[in-house]
């Protein structure tokens, strides 16, 4: 058990350091080295911003293993700080993504599954506040423990509602893309992790509210996750075996007088 905890601490520290660095470096490079056109924003821009939210969720699991006192409280509040960092950064980027959809139309077919990436910070933030509320009683004074528990529900329920709205929108866009000829691409894996965060978020809300409806929501999302994972996994294996995923891209045809 002690060895497992040591490995967990090392991996958590390394992952958190890399995640925080990416959350700063990637936006910095976008500003100083790149000039993204107005119509190029995509949900992929959210990827470097989600990592601190994941650390906020996982850090909650380490809080009870620290000695009572300031160590526990410091880690708990650091996790809340990473929650806020990721959440507010997402609120900056998400309007750019929706503006791109409204003003420039749907994403290219192969990128359409990335719309599910928006669910990542939504579900993961709900997961984080619920897990942090679970460990707050052993880390902070009584007035704050009840406040953290209330915040988990008051924040999580509205955000889960928006996540379900976005899930419906993203699913409709995927259906449209399939009808237009969308084939398999590695972007299909965007159907997995983001939905998984909504599963854990809904399960956390069910735990704190005791509502059966939220339990069934978590079950329904989990079924969706299993189906999506199986589909992405099967198509990936098929593509590797057939060589379709490992083949070099076909170079563009050279321009001729007839094709100019």
What's the CATH topology name? Glycosyltransferase
Rg over alpha carbons: 21 Å
β-strand number: 0
* CATH architecture classification name: Alpha/alpha barrel
So what's the overall shape?
globular
Strand count, sense and closure of the main sheet? none
Using the coordinates above, name the CATH class.
Mainly Alpha
SSE ordering? HHHHHHH
Strand content: under 5%
Model description:
The protein has about 260 residues and is an all-alpha fold. It has a single domain, classed as Glycosyltransferase (Alpha/alpha barrel). Helix content is about 70%, strand content about 0%. The protein is built from seven helices and no strands. The protein has helices at about 1-30, 45-60, 70-105, 120-135, 140-180, 195-210, 210-240. Helix 2 packs antiparallel against helix 3 (about 70-105) and helix 5 packs antiparallel against helix 6. The longest helix is centred in the middle third of the chain and has 38 residues, at about 140-180. It is globular and about 75 Å long. The mean pLDDT is about 90. It is a multi-pass membrane protein. InterPro entries: SLAC1/Mae1/Ssu1/TehA, Sulfite_efflux_TDT, Voltage-dep_anion_channel_sf. Keywords: Cell membrane, Membrane, Transmembrane, Transmembrane helix, Transport.
